[in-house]
Amino acid sequence: MSAESSILRVSLGSAVLLNLTNKKVDCLPTTIYVMTPGKCVRDCMYCSEAKNSSSLPNMLSRVIWPPFPMNDVIDRIKNGDFKRLCIQTVNNKISNKVVEKVLKEISTYIPVSVCINTYSEKLIDRIFLLGAERVGLPIDIANPKLHKTIRGGDFFKKLQFILKMADKYKEKITTHIIVGLGENDREILSLYDTFTKNGIKVALFAFTPVRGTKLQDLNPPDIVRYRKIQVATKLIEKGVPLSEFVFEEDRLIKLPKISTDEIKKLNPFTTRGCPDCNRPYYNEKPKGTMYNYPYKLSEEEWKKEISLLKL
Predict the structure, then answer these.
(1) Are the beta carbons of 20 and 32 closer than 8 angstroms?
(2) How far, in whole angstroms, is CA 262 from its chain's centroid?
(3) How many domains in the chain?
């Protein structure tokens, strides 16, 4: 392998957890997050790793991912007690080789999720064969036209590929939806409903403007809107049909009748996705608006967040 392909980028919190650095962080991750090296060949307008992004190097969203020798990272994971490893892939000529190397070394020690952008069924087969427990195939944008403009590629082709892999690898596929890129609420909830009915876990993100990206000046989503979508998507997971939600010009204006205690049982405001994923401060600043809580909410935090829903 080349010199570049012998390193892994590790999220700052994960690097602290692995004792690769002695930096202080406000909240530790419950999953070890690593990323393949090199610049991405794609040009998603919201991504700091996009080929034409001028963001600081070794960043993804708001998180810093410093590089470390791959073998050192692998050894520390093998000798630690961690719940999951998540491999984030950057699209380039070495990423698949790096993923294969890590899976061969790690998959018998810890459950591994691989997040990858591909239309290759053969590649997905290979990833599972090498021991991945889950594969993430992000769709990100719920509006087909915006998907093509902002992310690139055909929304419906991507959707059909995700559904095909979910049928082949039942309950083992994850996807991502980002709120705040110009889509409407009905599009998000309809897509979420489709994924849920097909056994696909959905990681819900709030759009995060990052300096150096093409969308650096776009505002993140309104927190009240995001909270309503969080509750609505949890209700969808529980089997509540879309017909029970009230929309006005495709904007969600009323949730089905639900009590505060029922909302707490749904636990909608914490990070979701693969099991044991909490992604601390991926969407937010430690002292800013908390879109996805990486920890159990306090009673004071519950009161504040539920009050936004104006039930």
Answers:
(1) no
(2) 25
(3) 1
Give the domain CATH number at 257.
3.20.20.70
| pTM exceeds 0.85, yes or no | yes
Q: Do residues 56 and 63 lie in contact, with contact meaning Cβ atoms separated by under 8 Å?
A: no
pLDDT tens digit sequence for 236-245: 999 999 999 9
Rg (alpha carbons) of the chain, rounded to whole number: 19
Counted residue by residue, the chain has a size of 311
Domain with 141 in it? 4-309
**First-residue to last-residue Cα distance in the chain:** 57
Residue with tokens 């909270």: 227
Residue 249, phi then psi, degrees to nearest 5: 50, 45
Count of other CB atoms within 10 angstroms of residue 306: 18
Chain position carrying tokens 């915006």: 146
pLDDT tens-place string over residues 208-231: 999 999 999 999 999 999 999 999
Check if the beta carbon of residue 102 is closer than 8 Å to that of residue 12. no
Q: What is the 3-state secondary structure (H, E, C) of the chain?
A: CCCHHHEEEECHHHHHHCCCCCCCCCCCCCCEEEECCCCCCCCCCCCCCCCCCCCCCCEECCEECCEEEHHHHHHHHHCCCCCCEEEECCCCCCHHHHHHHHHHHHCCCCCEEEECCCCCHHHHHHHHHCCCCEEECCCECCCHHHHHHHHCCCHHHHHHHHHHHHHHCCCCEEEEEEECCCCCHHHHHHHHHHHHHCCCEEEEEECCCCCCCCCCCCCCCCHHHHHHHHHHHHHHHCCCCHHHCEEECCEEEECCCCCHHHHHHHCCCECCCCCCCCCCCCCCCCCCCCCCECCCCCHHHHHHHHHHHCC
